[in-house]
Amino acid sequence: MSDTNLPLAGIKVIDFTGVQAGPACTQLLAWFGADVLKVERPGVGDVTRRQLRDFPDLDALYFTMLNSNKRSLELDTKTPEGKAIMEKLIREADVLVENFGPGAMDRMGFTWEHLQELNPRLVFGSVKGFNEQSSYSDIKVYENVAQCAGGAASTTGFWDGPPTISAAALGDSNTGMHLAIGILTALMGRAKTGKGQKVSVSMQDAVINLCRVKLRDQQRLEHVGYLEEYPQYPHGTFTDVVPRGGNAGGGGQPGWILKCKGWETDPNAYIYFTVQEQDWGPTCQAIGKPEWADDPAYATARARQPHIFQIFDEIEHWLADKTKFEAVNILRKFDVPCAPVLNMKEIAYDPTLRASETIVEVEQKKRGKFLTVGSPIKFSSFTPAITGAPLLGEHTDEVLARLGYSAGDIARLREKKVV
Ligand code: COA
After folding, report:
1. pTM of the prediction?
2. CATH classification of 3-209+350-416 is 3.40.50.10540, yes or no?
3. Residue 315: C-alpha distances to residues 288, 309, 327 (Å)
4. In the annotation, is 350 catalytic?
5. CB-ligand 1 contact for 140 (6 Å cutoff)
6. What would the pLDDT profile of 85-110 be if each residue is shown by its tens digit?
């Protein structure tokens, strides 16, 4: 499919974002065909250009992996001339996305009221750490802060350890994905009403949305006093808050991370094994314990729960001479929901993830080839083509020329560090 036929072709997005939550949202829109223009501080740009660099003078992977398929305009939006340029862009945009600290947009003069005056059709997407009603709404927020405020940390980890942060970007990229859904919804709404609207997503709210099963558990705990699928049941104790459940997870089917051959030296020689109620019979066959299938001490989930760790121990004995891949290849034939614990190297070089374009190799100006994520959303009529990220200000001249600025104007703006 050519770029002009992509679903979001013709949608103009001003990407006034930084770090991860905002850029992840606008990158998704860019993949699906929107014209995404990143507006960045002259000479500085998105902070991630310089964060965690692997080569001294190159844009960091942190930046290139969140800003593919975009263009970049250097613009100081705090100067009168910079503001005037930004206003021109806003007048012709469909979407403006920002994720600055609380109040930054207002301090720059870009209040929601002013944005509506400039362009009533504008969809304005905004990420903050906390929503406007929150007593914490003045606080700046990064990923891990949101994971703590959204219930993820208190429910992740082991019961005898502290609250734990997930490596998955529940606060950042997850919030960006929520915002993308909100923006697309507002664009559909605009097609009916002709009017734009403000779409706000807070990182705390986006994390809570993913922690819904823990909110379920909080209420179950209040009703019955225990949670039968947690390792604390039946021998441990429950308080009045959802405990950390180790690797039990949040589903109705008990499971655990189990050691496979080589675990002594390989920290990822494990599989996740799920004891699925409806497939208990085949599971017993698979692990060489056919006698458990009809044994009253094992036959039902309730009967198994008191000795679930003894069951997992037995399964680990069975796994002791099998690699994680061999184990999964056996278990899949018996319909056991399971997977190897894949490390990032295995993911990076997995040929099937490359074939599906979930992981893609991209050419980046100055850097050369690097690996990044492709679209996790697969469409039947197109596959988003992932390109490199823009260099800082790479498209400044072309954007300003299109807005009617002459080469002399641009040189003057550059001298004054407006662009
Ligand atoms: N021209 C002029 N000024 C610009 C500019 C530009 N192109 N781009 C940004 N700025 C200004 C902002 O207006 C702001 O000005 P201020 O002095 O009035 O506050 C300033 O740069 C700093 O921006 P800010 O985003 O607040 O940076 P920070 O480094 O202090 O804070 C965060 C970073 C991420 C903590 C903060 O932006 C935040 O809490 N964002 C909301 C939640 C979020 O998205 N978190 C990150 C998830 S990955």
Report:
1. 0.97
2. yes
3. 9, 10, 11
4. no
5. yes
6. 999 999 999 999 999 999 999 999 99
